[in-house]
Specification:
Layout lengths: L4 E2 L2 E2 H21 L2 H7 L4 H29 L3 H14 L9 H28 L6 H29 L4 H7 L1 H14 L21 H15 L5 H8 L8 H26 L1 H21 L3 H29 L5 H30 L3 H32 L1
Antiparallel strand pairs: 1-2
Helix pairs in contact: 1-6, 1-8, 3-5, 3-14, 4-5, 4-8, 5-14, 6-11, 6-13, 9-14, 9-15, 11-12, 11-13, 12-13, 12-15, 14-15
Length: 396
């Protein structure tokens, strides 16, 4: 059966991208102002980092579990409906929060939704395309993610400009695109027929190749220095900029990532994902070092552009390389473990960054992030050399 394409993208990835656009519009409206809101209700930088770390990490194991069960039953759509549905339900509740602990509670359950949906979504995308389309398709997914991440902060900026410090208005309006995302899944997305695993059949982690686990080690090292973007927004707010402009500055990062995501995704299909990921780590190391070195809004605007370049280089390429490495019947499990590693590592990463910010100075967490990115760069070079030697041996 001929697969339907929309604007050159397979039907499922197109509407999955549209779902991500609506949901990211909602979540980034909230995320772009959340650090400011938390500061306004008495949270410290360590508390802000802890909330983000706990929210991501405590729910991250669900990414592995949902990926495993997606492979087990041969379906992805039910997990997506539940996961995106939880986000839509939690979003308006932020308007009721008056204490940081309440935000932690809501953020935890919202991230549970993300934990349930993420691996099955990526598995659905990967199973809907040909291998030589992975870079382009995941680049499109990233572009749609960040398109929402442009519109969301822009709406937040406009609302804060009209209604200063009225964060509850933002939280309530953010519910609308979240609901549209769920409706898109229900109406337009079709499950891919994958082989259903018998109940006696176990999806063995040993079936995943060594290359996959080597790559996860690199991701772990890098993510340990890649704390939540909340601290970038906090430091930006400390330059003296009007707080209503903080979401606008964050929008610059997402705009650059959107413009570059698809071209870089196509490039990764031609020259390989590894080279782009390596370049992304280097750009990140330089960017974070300069975030620590300077405290000027003019410099920060340039650095957010650089940060968007890093994001475009790595996010889609990392998912595409997982898609390349892992076999079709284990994609949900593979993506689940990958996302779980990202989420679990974010807790120590956020704690380290928050403590460094509060106890040392505002520059320390960014120097630490730069150093970890350099370590990941070295490991990535070793990974590329090892993989090339392994391929040569296999062809002998």
């Amino acid at each position: 059966m001929k697969k339907e394409k929309i604007f050159g993208i397979q039907r499922n990835p197109f509407f999955t991208g549209l779902t991500s656009f609506f949901t990211d519009t909602s979540t980034k409206m909230i995320y772009s102002v959340m650090p400011l809101f938390l500061l306004s209700i008495g949270a410290s930088k360590t508390t802000i980092s802890l909330i983000e770390g706990v929210a991501e990490s405590t729910a991250s194991f669900l990414k592995a579990v949902s990926g495993y069960w997606s492979d087990k039953i041969g379906k992805s759509k039910p997990f997506m409906i539940i996961g995106y549905g939880i986000t839509a339900i939690i979003t308006p509740l932020y308007a009721l929060a008056r204490l940081p602990i309440q935000i932690l509670f809501f953020r935890f359950f919202e991230r549970v939704g993300k934990g349930i949906r993420t691996a099955p979504r990526d598995s659905l995308i990967s199973s809907s395309i040909k291998k030589n389309e992975a870079g382009k398709t995941f680049g499109f997914q990233k572009a749609m993610d960040n398109s929402g991440a442009i519109i969301g902060p822009l709406i937040a900026f406009l609302l804060l400009s009209i209604y200063p410090l009225k964060y509850s208005y933002i939280f309530l309006i953010a519910t609308i695109p979240a609901i549209l995302g769920v409706l898109t899944i229900i109406i337009f997305i079709k499950d891919v027929n994958k082989e259903k695993k018998e109940s006696s059949h176990k999806v063995s982690l040993k079936a995943l190749p060594k290359k996959f686990y080597f790559f996860l080690v690199i991701i772990f090292v890098f993510t340990l220095g890649n704390s939540a973007d909340a601290l970038l927004l906090v430091k930006t707010s400390e330059t003296g900029i009007d707080k209503s402009y903080v979401p606008f500055v964050y929008m610059i990062f997402n705009t650059v990532s959107v413009l570059l995501a698809i071209p870089i995704g196509k490039l990764s299909d031609k020259i390989g994902r590894e080279k782009l990921i390596l370049m992304g780590f280097i750009v990140y190391a330089i960017t974070y070092y300069l975030f620590g070195r300077f405290n000027s809004i003019n410099v920060f605007i340039f650095l957010f552009i650089m940060y968007g370049f890093y994001s475009a280089l790595t996010d889609g390429s990392q998912k595409a390389i997982i898609s390349d490495i892992v076999s079709k019947d284990l994609k949900g499990t593979g993506f689940g473990i990958y996302h779980a590693v990202l989420g679990i590592t974010l807790l120590p990463a956020s704690l380290i960054a928050g403590v460094l910010y509060d106890k040392v100075n505002s520059n320390a967490p960014f120097y630490f992030g730069s150093a970890m990115a350099l370590m990941a760069t070295i490991l990535m070079v070793i990974f590329i050399i090892w993989d090339r030697r392994r391929q040569k041996i296999a062809h002998v």
